[in-house]
Amino acid sequence: MVTGWCNIRSISPGTKHRVLHHSIPLRSVMVLETMANVGLLYFLFLVGVEMDIVHVIKTSGRKALVIAVTGMILPFLIGVSFSFILHQSAQYVKLGTFIIFLGVALSVTAFPVLARILAELKLVNTEIGKIAMASALLNDMCAWILLAVALAIAENEYWSLNSLLVITGTTAYVVFCVYVVRPLVLWVIQRTPEGEPVSEVCICLILSGVMISGFITDAIGTHSVFGAFVYGLVIPNGPIGATIIERLEDFVLGLLLPLFFAISGLKTDVTSIDGARTWAVLALVIVLASAGKITGTLLVSLFYDIPFYEGITLGLLLNTKGLVEIIVLNVLDDKTFAIMVIVAVVMTSIVQPGVTTLYRPARKRVAYKRRTIQRTKPDGEFRVVVCVHTPRNVPTIIQLLEASHPTKKSPICAYVLHLVELSGRASAVHIVQYTRKSGRPAINRMQAQSDHIFNAFQNFEQQGGFVSVTPFTAISQYSTIHEDICNLAEDKRAALIIIPFHKQQTVDGRMEDTNSSFRMLNQNAREGPLSPFTAGLSDWSECPELGAIGDLLASSDFVATYSVLVLQQYIGMEAIGDTTICMPDSPTQQQGRPDSGQRRSPQQDTAIFHPQP
């Protein structure tokens, strides 16, 4: 949207005036700007609510902190160097403020944007994705602190009593939020009965506090969004945070925030970037800032024994920029402002194709060991990836695990993966690993459902014995969610993947589809059976995923009731990152050794479980 309004700004003055007059009349600009600024406040508030700083600091370790700080230093110094060149066109901005602001703009990593990119690239649940998320969060926190300092000295060329008062007032506000606002919200949570929604009065008071926080920090001398962001950080995860996100997110992200970017795009005058020298400076800023971030991150990655290409990938991911950090202060002239917007757009646009080219986890799937049921040691741990769509899948899968009869010598390690369809919401971006040991409550409806599923499996773990359960949640589009399943099985070295059937039994005994997207996953799992004994039988099958015999037993015309378990062994033949899946009796398997341009991938067995009581 910002790019579109930038294009309007770059056309001829006469045409631009006519377009703007018909699309956004002058009398509406003030109203739109007001709504856009309100949307920005509530967006930063939501970002703060969704962040869990304490949890990240405890779990990320020293590696993420060092990567975040080191990856920020070099681009910050590059921004400081270019600030002396670009400051010539913005003389009315204080040099100290301009230096800090430009350094932060080039070194910051936009956490919300990075989370979405990682989800689309299927990297959030990988080691590099976890490091990138933790580093981006810490980087974002450092950037906001520096921006607060820049605003404190914005009115003064050098440090003075006024600057000290602004810093002191901002610190006092943060302390007030931590030691007064947060305990007050926790008190409200404790007084709310378990299972009951938070009262409407409390929600309205908390949402009103966003505007009050923005007003307080603006009166202190810091930008209003800083107050909203800190206010969101102190809101604890729980029923209040869940209710706020559910009710506010769609309205803010779908209506108010696009208005903010549209207004910001109107302020971006690309035609102000004139002359070869200015464009050369723009290109140099993009190249040096990107190279600085990648170099700083790569050096630390090599120090922590992270592979070379993964270090470059991590540096590319941390190059993700958000326009909020650039637009929010708006202390720049038109020329510098347009330059920084273009820098942010270009640097962010090269992240996804660059990471896709450099980092392909599928390339690492070499056949060093076959992980199948047949090759599992009888006295060793049996690792299983259990996929769950809804809580209705839980009882039957638990029955299957019980029937496996784990023993002390041969225990079962079950990795429970809750499959959630990616909806495009900001709060549904992360692939989160849950554990009841941390005691973290649900933050939204999806996590509440995941907690319900995981609680059932953990109760089974406590009662059954010799079964360990590790819960995960995969949020992705169903057309590509099989990649998350394979990545988890690859990472945990599982020998079996259990996928539930896409149909559920109704009260009258019939079978109905719970979600048409579920069947796509099962069809992909059963793709490629070429057995001559069953050829042609699938033409009359209602559910070919169960096989010819399984479909017959599961048919509504069959008098008896059965539970059908379909086992399939995967033999992956990778050719330049592509994978062909074949059955054990497939001609592809009988071809012998693969060609020189192909290599076998590790194997897992896959089960499609269709229960009938």
From TrEMBL:
Alphabetical UniProt keywords: Ion transport, Membrane, Potassium, Potassium transport, Transmembrane, Transmembrane helix, Transport
Keyword Ion transport: yes
Signal peptide: none
Region ranges (Disordered): 581-613
Cell location: Membrane
Transmembrane residue ranges: 35-57, 64-86, 98-119, 131-153, 165-189, 201-231, 251-267, 279-304, 337-359
Name of the protein in question: Cation/H(+) antiporter 15
Organism name: Sesamum angolense
